[in-house]
Every structure is written in C-alpha cells, then in structure tokens.
Design goal:
This protein is α+β, with helices and mostly antiparallel strands. It is 38% helix and 22% strand. Strands 1, 2, 3, 5, 6, 7, 9 and 10 form an eight-stranded mixed sheet that branches. It has a two-stranded antiparallel ribbon with strand order 4-8. It has a two-stranded antiparallel ribbon with strand order 11-12. A hairpin with a 2-residue loop joins β11 and β12. The longest helix is centred in the first third of the chain and has 36 residues. The protein starts with a helix and ends in a 5-residue tail after the last helix.
C-alpha cells in the first residue's frame, strides 16, 4: 500500500466564518471525539470533567472521613477510589491543557504560525499505530466572537464524520490501551511561548501509520458585518493534503505536548463502577 492509500482525507464544510476562537473549539471537539472513540478514556470528556470537578469539591469531606474512620473495608474502597481518581484527573488535566494550548496559539496574535495539530496513538511518536491530523484553515480576525455561534457548526462537523464510512471504520479500529501523543506543526520560523510544548528537532511524521486528515473549510457566502473594526486575515491559504511530509522542501517546526495521555478503562469495586461510588458511598454523604 502506498502512502496515499494510507491517508483518509475529510473536508468539513462550515457555513460560518472561522475565527480563532471557533477554530480552537472545533479542534477541541474533534480531539474529544477521537480520544473517546479510540477507547482511550472510558467516558466522554464532559463526563470526565464533571467527575473531576465534583470530586475536587468533595475532597475535604473525603480527607475528613479518612481521618475519623478506621474501617478496613472502607479504607480499601477509599484506596482504590483514590488510585483510580488520579488516572481520571490526569487524563482531564492533559486534555484541558491541550485545549488551552491550542486556543492560546491561535488567539495570541493575527500572525499565528500554527499549521497542524496531530494526534498519534501508539507506543512512541516515532512508531504510531494511528495518526489523526487536523489542518488549521484560514482564519478571520477582528470579529465579535459572541456574534458567531460556533456551537451550531459543531453539528456540521460531526455530520461530516458520521457519514464518512472510511473515517468511522478507522475510528472503530481498535489499537488497545496505548499512549496518545499530541504534536503541533508550525511554519518555518515559528516558535511558541507555551509552557505546555517542547520542541522536537528533526521530527518527521511517520508515513507507515494509517492517517485520517481533517481539513476545516468555511463556505460562508455573505460578508459578516458583526464589527465596525477593520477585519484582519492571517493570509494563510487553506492547506492541501500532502501525503509526503518528509519532502526536503517541507520546512516546519514540530512541538510536542509535555504530558502524554495514557489510555485506561473503567474501574469497578464491589461490582460497581468506582465513579458511582464517588457519589453513592456513605463517606461522601
């Protein structure tokens, strides 16, 4: 199989302009969808977030209970719950940092150099089993973000994914519990001030892995009048799918997120999901 045969392209047509804020939101939604469908987290991201925030609110009650109770069975449950909670919290923090990092890179100026966000599933970034590439489209600056209801466009985003048999087949292909690495690609001369990213000199995206490539595209027909300020553009042309990133003429800089998401499954104790016990166990009441 040649490289082109290993790449599944999907162009997502959005009926509104794409602003830095909306673009970062679309990318975040894509990442949430991919990581859950690749079965690296046992629940959707929003549920994961809810578990962590609720658990943090009740942390003081848990500590109070552990200081006042010495029941062995209760302590065993508490230990298992705490160990599993750390996995859930770590996954939430990693994904949350990814979303914040991408938004920061896209919104910090009108001259961002971000070209791609890439998810790699496998033992190492050099030998991934699956690769999901998200191309950064042309962005429109100077608009009022509140006037553009990007959540309406998320339906278009997932509609395009759902009707693509090839993309769904790839998403449903099991890679087992593994690592998810997040890489970002900047144009030549680009650099980042993000505390979450580390430079990866001489990195080249593997051409052996199966790839899905998402390209966001605005099909807005009418000019937007939501602002009186002069509109700015990043003058970045929509990226065309390229099956050979190892071309010597391809000048880019790669960065990797500092933390790696490690896949995990739901954990049960006493026949129940640990997350149910977080809410229903007596010491939380």
């Amino acid at each position: 199989m040649n490289n082109q045969g290993k790449i599944i392209p999907l162009t997502v047509a959005l009926t509104d302009i794409i602003t830095p804020k909306s673009c970062s939101s679309y990318i975040a939604e894509l990442i949430k969808y991919i990581v859950f469908n690749k079965q690296q987290i046992p629940y959707p991201y929003e549920r994961l977030k809810l578990f962590v925030l609720k658990r943090r609110e009740r942390q003081k009650l848990i500590e109070l209970h552990n200081n006042s109770e010495n029941n062995d069975a209760s302590l065993r449950v508490s230990f298992v719950m705490e160990k599993y909670y750390k996995k859930v919290e770590e996954a939430f923090e990693i994904l949350d940092n990814v979303f914040k990092c991408i938004e920061h890179e896209l919104t910090k100026s009108s001259e961002h150099l971000l070209e791609e966000v890439v998810l790699l599933f496998g033992a190492t970034p050099l030998s991934p089993k699956d690769v999901y590439r998200i191309k950064i489209p042309s962005l429109t600056y100077g608009h009022s973000e509140n006037q553009h209801l990007y959540k309406r466009q998320i339906g278009n985003l997932f509609r395009n994914i759902i009707i693509s048999d090839d993309v769904n087949a790839r998403l449903q292909r099991s890679v087992g519990l593994t690592n998810m690495f997040v890489m970002v690609k900047l144009r030549k001369g680009g650099n980042t001030d993000s505390q979450w990213l580390l430079p990866k000199d001489c990195y080249q995206l593997s051409q052996r892995a199966q790839q899905v490539c998402f390209t966001l595209e605005s099909t807005a027909a009418r000019p937007c009048t939501c602002t009186q300020t002069e509109l700015l553009s990043d003058n970045m042309a929509a990226l065309v799918l390229n099956s050979d990133d190892t071309d010597p003429g391809d000048q880019c800089v790669w960065y990797q997120m500092q933390r790696t998401l490690k896949g995990f499954r739901d954990c049960k104790s006493q026949g129940k999901s640990i997350t149910d016990l977080w809410y229903k166990h007596s010491f939380l009441s």
